[in-house]
């Protein structure tokens, strides 16, 4: 593991969630102190549930925090697959109920039809993000950078100025929308949150030179990355 990366390993998901939540809350407080506001993008999927519960109890001025997603499945938040639904039900609760949420989904049939509206929304955010929390799927995808994704090379292109892109891939289920890699890499604090021995082994594979796993593009970028892992 390079000096730019730190692996924080925990015995279980509860201990991990507590530590990661405290670290994120610290970064949000620093941003609020410095700029009067804070901007965070989180991942969806199954891994962040405990983290969201822990984060929702952190004491900070959530009314100054904007929360969005790193990526979204193109489904409304009434759908169980919606990442927004997860954030709304577990993170934007308790003390964090005052945070502002900016969804990446709009009610259009496809992400291509809605991308204009989403672009306007994200362009209004005061970037860079203070905090970005990535996840990683069992196929090595992060955000919606899926193996075989139709716009994967665009999304990973460090010279691409697009903030968000639609994405379709065989393993993605529904069509997606995702922030691009350059946006993620500019975050003040970048975390990767993974659980399970299989994912740790996958990450080790991604560290190998020439790996084509999408998460390898994040690792290769060489920017500071805090990896939070538990079995
Ligand atoms: O589909 C997605 O999956 C990944 C990983 O999810 P997990 O269930 O393996 O934790 C997630 O990071 C991403 O935001 C989400 O859209």
Automatic annotation (TrEMBL):
A single GO BP: carbohydrate metabolic process
Gene3D superfamilies: 3.40.50.1360
InterPro entries: 6-phosphogluconolactonase_DevB, 6PGL, Glc/Gal-6P_isomerase, NagB/RpiA_transferase-like
Pathway membership, UniProt: Carbohydrate degradation; pentose phosphate pathway; D-ribulose 5-phosphate from D-glucose 6-phosphate (oxidative stage): step 2/3
Catalytic reaction list: 6-phospho-D-glucono-1,5-lactone + H2O = 6-phospho-D-gluconate + H(+)
Known function: Hydrolysis of 6-phosphogluconolactone to 6-phosphogluconate.
Identification of the protein by name: 6-phosphogluconolactonase
UniProt source species: Dyella choica
